[in-house]
Amino acid sequence: MSFNFLNQNIKPIDPKKVAQLVLPDGTHMQQAAMGTFHSDNPDLIDNMEDIIVESIRLGYRHLDCATAYQNEAVVGRATDKAIKLGLVKRDELFMLSKLWNKHMNPADVIPACEASLKQLQLDYLDMYVVHWPWPNDHPPGCDGDAINPDAVPYIHEMFMEVWEKMTKLKKSGKVKNIGTSNQTQKTMELLLRDTNDFNHPVYNQMELHPLFQQKKLVKYFIDNKVVPSGYMSLGSPRRPGRDRFAEHQADMQHPVIQRLAKETGMTPPAICLAWAHQRENNKVGYVSMAERSEWIKFNLEAATKNVLTTEQMIAIEGDGTHENPGINTNNRLIWGQVFFWPEARVLGHDRDVLWNDRQIFESKADFARFRKAVGEFYKVWKETAVDLPVNYL
Ligand SMILES: NC(=O)c1ccc[n+]([C@@H]2O[C@H](COP(=O)([O-])OP(=O)(O)OC[C@H]3O[C@@H](n4cnc5c(N)ncnc54)[C@H](OP(=O)(O)O)[C@@H]3O)[C@@H](O)[C@H]2O)c1
Questions:
Q1: Which residues have C-beta atoms less than 6 Å from ligand 1?
Q2: Of 4, 7, 144, 288, which one's alpha carbon is 20 to 30 angstroms from that of 315?
Q3: Could you report the per-residue pLDDT of 100-147, keeping only the tens digit for each?
Q4: 97 φ, ψ to 5°?
Q5: Could you tell me the residue range of the domain that residue 109 belongs to?
């Protein structure tokens, strides 16, 4: 059984009152985006079309979609309906979609984008983003620790072959802007090194919430004209099981978030989103997802005004002193272990290997040498060790 929590009596927000982020070409996009990932939640799957129409009615103009969410056709029906109902015009919407890992090879990029356009019932996308930095795919519902033998780490040469097609999409006008998601500083440095004013990535979507602030990386993107935008802004309480670990903390339950909520008369989610809105002088986007009208509106409204004082922002972010350390605990929710490649743990249990840049390669030939050497290393280890503790390969 699924439930519908939409309420047409709730008054919309004037979209003009919502903070805008400006891309290098002058395009404006709402700072707050409506997420469309359903986290495999049946209520959301059944009601997604109505939820998207409702989010547009309530004032959202920026929709965050992806092939991986397996619902672009639903979003397409919803936006078409919203346009026909007169709630919005196409050119008022900022439609973002993402290239899925499975299509991260030169032959598939343009057809994958065209398929997204068709499903979304659009002539162009406002932003097309490479979802993850590698082509590693995993079957739906697979075990969180499953390793695909074809998976590889970040290989810059492979990424640039994909980026060349992203550039073509921009040249063709099917896509107005191109960006990335889940890049590290090193992978972005390589991309910026090899792009120009025309095909420079202008956006990077990344995990950001009060307990996982990624301040240095966010600053790096801003300094390099890449607009950062945060996902899981509320700490993603309904994230899938593969992204849940015993040591995880809940942002909304953190004592400082709770204290600030009491002090301001606001709620813990309001504090999380106020921080998302105000951080770095309102220069960072945020994506959130909700299925009830009250929360959809509430999440958008957070981008209409600054409500936290400097002291309250410091309580969350710190000011670099011991007295005010802030609450960032590097509470990363997505480790992405389903994307690991066979050699990912060659240096031991390196859970951070997707994010710490220890295994990124310039060329396919470099990685082939590394893969061969690791294979030989394990062969000798297996042949010589008295008791090999873990069967890695
Ligand atoms: N680029 C990437 O790799 C990537 C990865 C993950 C996510 N994303 C994007 O980011 C979006 C948001 O991520 P997310 O949904 O995991 O995280 P989230 O927005 O942090 O969390 C959404 C959850 O919080 C609850 N919630 C929403 N508004 C609330 C409010 N005002 N008060 C209390 N609870 C509230 C919702 O509950 P109800 O369901 O009950 O409404 C929902 O379960 C996704 O939909 C997707 O578009 C991108």
A1: 35-37, 39, 64, 131, 181-182, 205, 231-239, 269, 287-292, 295, 298-299
A2: 288
A3: 999 999 999 999 999 999 999 999 999 999 999 999 987 766 776 778
A4: -135, 170
A5: 15-362
Question: Do 377 and 251 reside in the same domain of the chain?
Answer: no
pTM over 0.90: yes
β-pairing, 28-30 vs 20-22, is antiparallel
Query: Are 97 and 177 found together in one domain?
Result: yes
- The phi and psi torsions of 17 (rounded to 5 degrees) equal -85, -10
d(CA 381, CA 18): 59
Query: What is d(CA 44, CA 34) in angstroms, rounded to the nearest whole number?
Result: 13
The per-residue DSSP string of 157-202 comes to HHHHHHHHHHHHHHHHTSBS-EEEES--HHHHHHHHHT--TTT---
Please check whether residues 186 and 282 belong to one and the same domain: yes
If one counts the domains in the chain, the total is: 2
* Residues labelled as active-site residues: 69
d(CA 329, CA 19): 28
pLDDT at position 138: 79
